[in-house]
Backbone:
């Protein structure tokens, strides 16, 4: 095992190549003009990424506005579009659900507007007004930047970056989005969940006093993996198993735990000492009792995030785990001078365990936060309200990146230093025949970071 993974290197220009093996005949057909795609009374929506998450997001997006119509879709894999690939969902599932809802007219995507390949996102974004992006997170900064360049409103899933270069790219694009009056929503849906919103109001009112510490958890089981198939290139194997590679997912601390880290950042954002993100991170983690042939990410992380100046900091403890048979715990706790808050449950307790306040859910059950975030996007678009989640989305995503750097290296990692490094995990070239930025050894195993030996990218 090498001390420093080969994918951690300074940013350089990347070339997008479309692999013939990945492109359907449809992707070579000419793009239709927007006026030919949909009537003037409809707003054209595009879908970049056809996996399970975006299949859900696009339903929620269309359900939030009857005047929206999906007119073009893209994915790196053609079989993700038609639903015939591993873990396939794709267009048949979406169309069936919309038909059941009586909304099939809102989905008009003939074969001529289905695009496959690494650069297929451009063909979709070029011909729509709104785009829903839910591809492997490593591509998020690239896709978001292009959408903003083309003047499109955006819903994008979390996390929005997996490295420093991606963070800087998203922040830069967010500023341009503001200049163009574009609307951006990020899928950190706790910002649209009633229990969190009401808890945040109570926090702002001083219900638990001054924050003194916090805890964030995402402990659960390991997700799916897909066995390597004959004829697959290394790039295809990694793309199919994107959750197992940090250049694609950022590790599960980014892919999942970002939700909980985002909550702590959100509540800390109004604190004059803490600010909106940690100053440093220090922690430990490992990959244990798991084959290195399926990926390279850790399956456990424990981190202390320090918010505020060095000698007046507030420490937040974070833990996430993906190990079968272990206890499940997903949530956050915020400790103040006057009590303890569980914002997910909407509960404040005193230090003896007595409930001081609890959020009362409406009899209707309340609104699904994933529906609510798309309603927020359409409300901003239709009523021209300021809306840009990209800033806090990037900060929360990079908070997770900072934690991963700390656990891999075993060092104290500084936010400012990590951001300034602008280091990138991404490959030099994107095609299914190109080499990814991490490769297996002769035994088919991937190098796993060893704390104390793994070097921070800008110090390697």
Residues:
């Amino acid at each position: 095992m090498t001390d420093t993974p080969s994918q951690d290197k300074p940013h350089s220009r990347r070339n997008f190549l479309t692999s013939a093996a990945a492109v359907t005949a449809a992707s070579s057909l000419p793009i239709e003009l927007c006026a030919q795609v949909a009537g003037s009374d409809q707003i054209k929506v595009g879908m970049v990424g056809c996996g399970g998450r975006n299949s859900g997001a696009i339903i929620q997006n269309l359900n939030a506005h009857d005047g929206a119509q999906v007119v073009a879709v893209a994915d790196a894999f053609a079989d993700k579009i038609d639903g015939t690939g591993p873990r396939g969902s794709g267009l048949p599932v979406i169309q069936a659900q919309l038909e059941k809802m009586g909304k099939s007219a809102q989905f008009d995507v003939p074969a001529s507007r289905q695009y496959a390949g690494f650069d297929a996102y451009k063909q979709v974004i070029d011909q729509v007004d709104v785009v829903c992006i839910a591809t492997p997170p490593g591509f998020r900064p690239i896709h978001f930047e292009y959408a903003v360049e083309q003047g499109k409103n955006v819903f994008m899933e979390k996390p929005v970056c997996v490295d420093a270069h991606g963070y800087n790219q998203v922040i830069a694009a967010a500023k341009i989005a503001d200049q163009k009056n574009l609307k951006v929503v990020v899928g950190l849906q706790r910002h649209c969940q009633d229990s969190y919103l009401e808890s945040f109001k109570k926090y702002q009112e001083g219900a638990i006093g001054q924050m003194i510490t916090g805890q964030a958890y995402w402990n659960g089981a390991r997700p799916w993996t897909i066995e390597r198939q004959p004829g697959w290139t290394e790039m295809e194997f990694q793309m199919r198993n994107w959750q197992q590679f940090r250049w694609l997912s950022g590790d599960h601390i980014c892919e999942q735990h970002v939700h909980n880290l985002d909550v702590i950042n959100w509540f800390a954002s109004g604190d004059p000492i803490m600010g909106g993100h940690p100053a440093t991170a220090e922690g430990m983690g490992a990959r244990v009792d798991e084959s290195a042939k399926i990926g390279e990410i850790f399956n456990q992380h424990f981190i202390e995030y320090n918010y505020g100046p060095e000698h007046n900091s507030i420490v937040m403890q974070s833990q996430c785990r993906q190990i079968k048979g272990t206890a499940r715990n997903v949530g956050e706790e915020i400790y103040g001078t006057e009590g303890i808050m569980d914002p997910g449950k909407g509960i404040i307790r005193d230090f003896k365990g007595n409930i001081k306040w609890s959020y009362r859910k409406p009899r209707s059950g309340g609104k699904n936060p994933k529906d609510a975030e798309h309603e927020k996007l359409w409300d901003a678009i239709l009523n021209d309200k300021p809306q840009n989640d990209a800033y806090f989305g990037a900060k929360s995503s990079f908070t997770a990146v900072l934690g991963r750097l700390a656990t891999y290296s075993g060092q104290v990692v500084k936010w400012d230093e990590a951001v300034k490094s602008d280091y990138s995990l991404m490959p030099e070239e994107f095609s299914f025949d190109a080499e990814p930025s991490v490769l297996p050894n002769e035994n088919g195993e991937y190098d796993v970071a060893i704390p104390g030996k793994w070097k921070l990218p800008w110090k390697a």
In short: The mean pLDDT is 90. The chain has two domains: 9-190+370-389, 191-362+397-428+444-459.
